[in-house]
Amino acid sequence: MRAPLLALPLLLAPQALWANAEDPDTVPPPIRAMLDAAMQSGNEGDVATIVKYARAASPESAETVTKIASKWSEDRHETAQRKLREADFFDLVKARAELGGYVSSGNTENVGLTASIEIKREGIDWRHKLRFAADYQESLGQVTRERYLAAYEPNWKLGERLYLYGSGLFESDRFSGFTQRFSVSAGAGYSAIKRPGMKLDLELGPAYRSTRLITDTTESNLAARGSLDFDWKLTRGITVRQNASAYLQDANSTVSSKSALLARLIGPLSAQLSYALQYESMPPAGRKTTDTTSRAALVLDF
């Protein structure tokens, strides 16, 4: 019941805004109708477009149109913030589960299964992200691929775009030459693109890594960490995602990347094609520097 009540001000906003406007009659009916439709859709990009062309088409009403759009945006932001403040803990939790198959090349060349889950909670001041992933393959009774990953990243928002991040990462992949690797990092993040249908987050900071190799030796190093997280909703049902991170250090440096194309099938269920690359600059003797993994999977958002 709470969600419809919180959404009510947004549905009534255009009428209320026009009623309080100084000179609503100066706005031509076609421009007013288009602006009303854009505001009711909740798409800030469409509202900005209408305001832009209204200034050129009807200069005498440009000030009124700009004020109406600005007040609508402010009211929308306040309503969203109130919703976040009043929401229960689990109301703000979103998850994405992936299950599918893969074809790999590099240190292993096999067909196998992959599974992952991403959990995200977006609050007013804090954002928390959890990720678990596993690849496993047996061939003729022998394990030919075994990779596990667990990651946690808290973000403290300093403003609309700037935030501080922390990052903890555990990996295990003996076919790449290590039984366990711990990486911790902290630094600054910036939402370079933040608009409906598209986002780009960039992060940079120092890191510390501890790696236990399959030779039972342990390496510990300071590193520099950088990452990007890009989402682009091409259409209502098609989304492109690009994630990449790099740990650069004097010893073995790591660069990983995942490109994905998601197509919505029905409701929260999507089909995904992805290509992942992992590069280790100084792998143990007998290991290749680059592993690639192509996956086809079903993705469930909940």
Q: Which CATH class of the largest domain is shown?
A: Mainly Beta
The percentage helix is 10-25%
Q: Give the CA-CA distance, first to last residue.
A: 20 Å
What sequence of helices (H) and strands (E) makes up the elements? HHHHEEEEEEEEEEEE
- The number of strands is 12
CA radius of gyration: 24 Å
* Low-confidence runs of at least 5 consecutive residues: 1-12
CATH topology of the largest domain: Porin
- Structurally, the number of domains stands at 2
What fraction of the residues are assigned to beta strands by DSSP?
Answer: over 45%
Number of helices: 4
For the record, the CATH architecture of the largest domain stands as Beta Barrel
Structural class: alpha+beta
CATH superfamily of the largest domain, by name, is monomeric porin ompg
Short description:
By secondary structure, this protein is α+β, with helices and mostly antiparallel strands. The protein contains four helices and twelve strands.
Task: Chart the SSEs and their pairings.
Blueprint: H1 2-20, H2 29-41, H3 44-57, H4 62-86, E1 93-105, E2 111-122, E3 126-139, E4 142-157, E5 162-173, E6 178-195, E7 198-213, E8 218-233, E9 238-248, E10 254-266, E11 269-280, E12 290-301
Antiparallel strand pairs: 1-2, 1-12, 2-3, 3-4, 4-5, 5-6, 6-7, 7-8, 8-9, 9-10, 10-11, 11-12
Helix pairs in contact: 1-4, 2-3, 3-4
Properties at a glance:
12-stranded antiparallel β-barrel, 302 residues, elongated, Porin, alpha+beta, single chain
